[in-house]
Specification:
The chain is α+β, with helices and mostly antiparallel strands and 638 residues long. The protein is 61% helix and 11% strand. The chain folds into five domains: 98 residues, Alpha-Beta Plaits (2-Layer Sandwich), CATH 3.30.70; 121 residues, no CATH class; 81 residues, Alpha-Beta Plaits; 172 residues, no CATH class; 82 residues. Strands 2, 3, 4, 9, 10 and 11 form a six-stranded antiparallel sheet that branches. A four-stranded antiparallel sheet has the order 6-7-5-8. β9 and β10 form a beta hairpin. The model has no long low-confidence stretch (mean pLDDT 89). One of its GO terms (biological process) is vacuolar acidification. It is found in: Membrane.
């Protein structure tokens, strides 16, 4: 991948050509608009967003709602329709043509009516459920409700009382001459009661019931509670049938989802086209438009402007200032390295005067990820799962890239698994073993540190390249070469005894280290205004040598994670071997433990490798040269 070279343009076009011009530019796609700058002597006016924008927004919202609602009613079927109706491969002209052939309003009215009826039915059904539960508590009363209200001299109370008050209420009601109390049903907190009393004592009876927190219930139906319960059940069945009928009607609209997807894309682009004019400025008759285009599309862009405006326009195209942070960033994808672009972009896009680190990052990421998992069987599983998903599944471009990313990483995992001789830990001993994770700790540790050293050296080399490319040769000497001199000399001094260096060689290395450190102190804060500030800043820069120690230690995770995953796999295998020796039940349990344990370890190993490899890139590698913070190139099509 590389940063696409940009050109800045300023276009003066007739106002009457605005609509056809924007339409053609949207087909062209690779245009990044910016706010038109106001020249000192120019009396320019803002261009107002068209009044029809609200109507377009309303249409867009309706289409999005239809897709969302159908997806809610029929998740599986709608997902399948959406995956089959990708607009990514359609030309903009095709989107416009297909959108113009389909009027969604009639289908919207149908779906809107269905949704409202389903919502009304849902609310009624919920109320019926509450009502049914309430009636269910009184089904032990077999007498029609109207008969209970027909007594001339007696009064019946139906209601609830807290469980804790029930016994006290019964005791107190014995003081009345003519009172009958019956428990109909109860739950964990309340008792449902029927209380029968004389109308002569109605007032006193009410007061007594009220004292014990009695809540009277009034039922407004005729017939028995059982009959009312059955009526509710019948009505619920009617609602279910009505809902099924409504959903059946809605299901027929699933076939229009591809058309809705096209309509949605068309309206989104139309809204983008209408909204973009707020960036432009104008005189009475001329629009002034500014933006960026890829440098290799300059000729094509000029031809388009000439064709649309009939030569009634003026176009200025100029080179961009490489140090301008406003220049948009467009990365050019190519081959396998493009799969790792998301790792760079998660951190930040590069600035225009930097380089895209993805090609170099992709190599180290691929190697480090595999080393952190280092199991042939795990890599093979990742390869098969991601490979089959790519062959069989219908995914959008983003998901496909993500699957390809892990498909590529599976090969690194398998290679390191072969080197470690590991497949499900020690379950299968591979003849390709070069490093034994149970014995060769020091070899793996040294290998991890070497990888780290190479990674850091390349990071500093990239920094030097960027500085030299931008014309700062001496900065490359001060900020990179002096560190190379210092670190290399100190490392060689530490290893002098192991390699048998002579005293003369040691002295040379010591002098080189001192020269490097003095250089860092002298030039580490060369922009400071005072000599004290310069020396103080230089000493602080030299203190940064401690961060390199931390960096080298960080690379030990290459060893640690690989060994940890391997030891967990071995531990699972030991447990399984113990279980399978216990007969049929032990074998079954062993298979379950193996499947669950290894699956969990696979997930944990891949997750840890993804996170920690990304950390090595972001914290150790990028900190040496990469600022980031570039603004993404916004293409003129969604």
């Amino acid at each position: 991948m590389a940063i696409v070279k940009m050109k800045k343009f300023k276009l003066f076009a007739l106002e009457k050509d605005r609509k056809p011009l924007l339409k053609e530019l949207q087909k062209f796609d690779y245009v990044h608009f910016i706010k038109t700058s106001n020249e000192k002597d120019e009396d320019l006016k803002e261009i107002q967003i068209p009044e029809n924008i609200n109507l377009l927004k309303e249409k867009s919202q309706k289409v999005k709602w239809m897709i969302k609602y159908l997806s809610k009613l029929f998740p599986k079927e709608a997902k399948e329709e959406i995956s089959n109706s990708s607009t990514e491969n359609l030309l903009f002209v095709q989107v416009e043509q297909q959108a113009g052939k389909y009027d969604f309003n009639k289908d919207y009215e149908t779906l809107d009516r269905i949704s409202k009826e389903i919502e009304v039915n849902k609310e009624e059904f919920l109320n019926l459920e509450i009502r049914k539960k309430e009636i269910d508590n009184w089904r032990n009363i077999k007498e029609p409700i109207e008969n209970l209200k027909a007594f001339k001299t007696a009064k019946i109370f139906l209601g609830t009382v807290p469980k804790k008050s029930f016994e006290t209420l019964k005791d107190n009601l014995r003081n009345f001459d003519k009172v009958y109390i019956e428990e109909i049903s109860q739950d964990s907190t309340m008792v449902n009661l029927m209380v029968l009393g004389s109308k002569l004592e109605e007032k006193e009876l009410k007061n007594q019931l009220k004292t014990h927190s009695f809540t009277e219930l009034n039922f407004d139906f005729k017939g028995t509670f059982e009959e009312e319960f059955e009526k509710i059940k019948l009505r619920e069945e009617e609602i279910k049938k009505a809902d099924n009928k409504l959903k059946s009607t809605a299901e027929r609209l699933l076939k229009v989802i591809p058309k809705l997807e096209v309509q949605d894309n068309y309206l989104d682009n139309l809204l983008l086209r209408e909204n973009i004019v707020s960036n432009f400025k104008k005189t009475d008759t001329v629009d002034i438009i500014e933006g960026y285009i890829p440098a290799d599309m300059e000729y094509e862009f000029q031809k388009l402007i000439t064709r649309i405006s009939n030569r009634n326009s003026y176009l200025e195209i100029s080179d961009v200032d490489k140090d301008n942070p406003e220049v948009p960033i467009l990365l050019k994808n190519s081959g396998l390295t493009g799969l790792f672009a998301s790792i760079t972009q998660m951190y930040a896009l590069p600035r225009y005067n930097e380089i895209d680190p993805t090609p170099i990052l992709s190599i180290f990421y691929w190697v480090f990820f595999g080393m952190m998992v280092a199991d042939f069987a795990y890599g093979l599983i990742l390869c098969l799962v991601s490979g089959i998903a790519l062959m069989v599944g219908k995914f959008n471009e983003t998901t496909r890239k993500f699957l390809k990313f892990f498909f590529a990483l599976s090969f690194s995992t398998m290679i390191w698994g072969l080197l470690y001789g590991s497949a499900f830990g020690d379950l299968i001993k591979l003849p390709t073993q070069v490093l034994d994770s149970s014995k060769d700790f020091m070899s793996i540790l040294i290998l991890s540190v070497i990888f780290g050293a190479v990674h850091l050296v390349i990071g500093l080399a990239i920094k030097a390249y960027i500085l030299i490319k931008n014309g700062h040769f001496m900065d490359a000497i001060y900020d990179v070469f002096l560190w190379y001199l210092t670190l290399a000399s100190l490392i060689m001094l530490i290893l002098a005894g192991r390699f048998g260096f002579s005293e003369f060689t040691k002295n040379i290395l010591l002098i080189c280290a001192l020269v490097g450190m003095l250089g860092i102190v002298a030039f580490g804060a060369r922009d400071a205004e005072t000599i004290v500030g310069r020396i103080g800043g230089g000493i602080y820069s030299l203190y940064g040598i401690t961060s390199y120690i931390g960096d080298f230690v960080s690379y030990l995770r290459l060893m640690a994670l690989g060994l940890a995953g391997g030891f967990i796999a071995v531990a699972i295998n030991i447990i399984v071997k113990m279980l399978v020796s216990g007969g049929i039940l032990g074998i079954i349990l062993g298979v379950v433990v193996f499947a669950f344990g290894q699956s969990f370890n696979i997930f944990l190993s891949f997750l840890s490798a993804y996170v920690h490899t990304s950390r090595l890139m972001y914290v150790e590698f990028f900190s040496k040269f990469y600022e980031g913070g570039g603004k993404a190139f916004k293409k003129f099509r969604i």
